[in-house]
């Protein structure tokens, strides 16, 4: 081949590449135009979130500002010290960065603690990104110092101001913006902009799927099917009413303990968090330890459930389930388990049963349960009247507290992990949602009946009646001291929803003389779904008397591995003699269909 031929071939190849690039550009531009039209259309359909649920009352900020300026007038030197310190740090950082850039050297090293948002090496090696990061961290520290120095606020107001100021600071992290996120910029260059197209498609998909509400898809919805690769422990639905389906799980041993276990999961979420897959299924584990296990699967209510209250959950939920289990197993007592709000309601039910002289419950186990709400923990920032008034108005108007509000509230307790990072990966990086079962469950939320939600928020969370004056339910003034059955309770060390020390205080106020409390590592979910085989999180125990959670923790012994075996060891002497294994159902309660049932997958609301 001659040189001319080679040149012509090179020109032809270059021309072909140019034409292909032009075609890709034109296709991407057309795709962007289509997506933009869909984006505008989807955003126009979003719900109008009531102003009361868009943030705390402006009174909080006005009061904080008033206190700040009042303090400035009283002690101007303190404000000047803060401002001059901030200006000095900013100017020093700017000069150092300029000098390094002129010298062609790396950015000045950061002495601050490592922040996983800034894991990309460019945040430390590239002068521009290092400057952006360090200035953001300087600004964040200035805000923190300013908020912490404000005086004249009540402790609860100070806590809320600190939380919402932190939310604003997190929102303005440079990682949340395309132009200041090196991962997103690199991905766009590597993919010739395809990641931006994919990200826009993900954004439009989420808006359209949620009728205009921006809810980031956390997990691949096509990777999981409840009853196929989630919630697969064999069992049968043996009872159904307007509130729940009762699942009896098939035995895994030839003999079982005489006293059955009935587990009440929270109706804020779906029960299969306890049966995600065989390797981490608490449900399967309990069955394999020789227990006849029943699990309640709550209905996901629609607006027709508006007047369903806490009394309905106690009478038609808990007591009905307990009576049905007793009938099927032909026993006089059960061992009951309650998780989160279901544990709170189990405690209410125990008070009601005691007043009725009903000894149907032999022992009670509480997973991350609040019964004393005097300290509401992190979630307390959402429990003042400014929010609760808005929730009440919205719930009464809609008939339910929509799962959108519950999901958003809990997500903002861990905004970096459940809002910003998923949004960055999906919308700025163009990545598909991961096939992660826990995140899939997290996105499979439920509504709450209006009346029940209001009773819970007002009477229990805000007014703390169960631990003080008494909470009216099922015709009884329920009090925490009336919980007198043997108790095993589990708190979780880093629980954002039910702080372990508040859980400990509630258990201490119970009237039982047989109480065991253990503290699991990790949080509200991972601390409970902690199978022994993983040996991932340990737990603490302390049988000695203590006057405070701090004293209890100081004397607690650390154990490696899961608390599940400790619970099984505690339950065994309270579970009765061994009897032949029971198959699900009975003549009076025949099997209605296989587990996990209809309600968990959005089946019919009405009992058949």
Automatic annotation (TrEMBL):
GO terms for molecular function: acyltransferase activity. InterPro entries: AB_hydrolase_fold, PHA/PHB_synthase, PHA_synth_I, PhaC_N. Gene3D superfamilies: alpha/beta hydrolase. It is found in: Cytoplasm. GO terms for biological process: poly-hydroxybutyrate biosynthetic process. Residues 114-285 form the Poly-beta-hydroxybutyrate polymerase N-terminal domain. It comes from the Bacteria. Residues 579-608 are annotated as: Disordered. Keywords: Acyltransferase, Cytoplasm, Transferase. It holds the Pfam family PhaC_N. GO terms for cellular component: cytoplasm. Its main location: cytoplasm. PANTHER family: POLY(3-HYDROXYALKANOATE) POLYMERASE SUBUNIT PHAC, POLY-3-HYDROXYBUTYRATE SYNTHASE. This is Class I poly(R)-hydroxyalkanoic acid synthase. The lineage of its organism: Bacteria, Pseudomonadati, Pseudomonadota, Alphaproteobacteria, Rhodobacterales.
């Amino acid at each position: 081949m001659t040189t001319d031929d080679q040149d012509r071939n090179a020109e032809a190849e270059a021309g072909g590449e140019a034409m292909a690039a032009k075609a890709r550009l034109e296709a991407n531009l057309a795709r962007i135009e289509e997506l933009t039209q869909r984006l505008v259309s989807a955003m126009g359909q979003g719900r109008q979130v009531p102003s009361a649920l868009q943030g705390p009352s402006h009174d909080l900020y006005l009061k904080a500002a008033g206190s700040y300026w009042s303090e400035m007038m009283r002690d101007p030197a303190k404000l000047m010290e803060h401002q001059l310190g901030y200006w000095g740090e900013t100017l020093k950082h700017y000069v150092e960065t300029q000098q390094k850039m002129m010298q062609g050297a790396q950015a000045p090293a950061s002495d601050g603690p490592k922040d996983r948002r800034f894991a990309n090496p460019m945040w430390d090696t590239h002068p521009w990104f290092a400057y952006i990061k360090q200035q953001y961290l300087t600004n964040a520290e200035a805000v923190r110092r300013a908020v912490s120095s404000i005086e004249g606020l009540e402790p609860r107001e100070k806590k809320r101001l600190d939380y919402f100021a932190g939310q604003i600071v997190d929102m303005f992290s440079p990682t949340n913006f395309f132009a200041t996120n090196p991962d997103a910029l690199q991905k766009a260059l590597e993919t010739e902009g395809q990641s931006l197209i994919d990200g826009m498609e993900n954004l439009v998909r989420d808006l359209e799927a949620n009728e205009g509400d921006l809810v980031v898809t956390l997990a691949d919805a096509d990777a999981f099917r409840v009853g196929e690769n989630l919630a697969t422990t064999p069992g049968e639905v043996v009872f159904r009413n307007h509130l729940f389906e009762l699942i009896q799980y098939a035995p895994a041993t030839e003999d079982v303990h005489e006293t059955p276990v009935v587990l009440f999961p929270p109706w804020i979420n779906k029960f299969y968090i306890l049966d995600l897959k065989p390797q981490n299924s608490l449900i399967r584990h309990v069955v394999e330890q020789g227990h006849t296990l029943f699990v309640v699967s709550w209905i996901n209510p629609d607006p027709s459930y508006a007047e369903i209250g806490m009394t309905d959950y106690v009478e038609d939920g808990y007591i009905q389930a307990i009576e049905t289990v007793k009938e099927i197993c032909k026993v006089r007592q059960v061992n009951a388990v309650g998780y989160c709000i279901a544990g709170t309601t189990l405690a209410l039910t125990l008070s009601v049963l005691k007043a009725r002289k009903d000894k149907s419950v032999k022992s009670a186990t509480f997973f991350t349960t609040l019964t004393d709400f005097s300290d509401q923990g992190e979630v307390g920032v959402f429990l003042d009247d400014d929010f609760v008034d808005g929730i009440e108005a919205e719930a009464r108007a809609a008939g339910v507290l929509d799962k959108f509000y519950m999901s958003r509230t809990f997500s903002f307790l861990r905004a970096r992990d459940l809002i910003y990072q998923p949004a960055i990966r999906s919308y700025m990086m163009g990545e598909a949602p991961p096939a992660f079962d826990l995140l899939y469950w997290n996105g499979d939320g439920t509504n709450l009946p209006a009346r029940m939600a209001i009773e819970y928020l007002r009477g229990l969370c805000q007014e703390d009646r169960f631990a003080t004056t008494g909470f009216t339910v099922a015709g009884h003034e329920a009090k925490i001291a009336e919980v007198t059955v043997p108790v095993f309770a589990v708190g979780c060390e880093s629980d954002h929803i039910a702080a372990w020390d508040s859980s400990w205080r509630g258990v201490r106020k119970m009237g039982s003389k047989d109480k065991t409390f253990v503290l699991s590592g990790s949080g509200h979910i991972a601390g409970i779904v902690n199978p022994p085989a993983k040996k991932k999180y340990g737990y603490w125990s302390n049988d000695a008397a203590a006057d405070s959670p701090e004293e209890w923790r100081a004397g607690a012994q650390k154990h490696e591995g899961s608390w599940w075996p400790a619970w099984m060891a505690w339950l065994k002497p309270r579970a009765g003699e061994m009897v032949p294994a029971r198959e699900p159902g009975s003549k009076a309660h025949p099997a209605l269909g296989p587990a996990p049932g209809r309600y968990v997958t959005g089946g019919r609301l009405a009992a058949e």
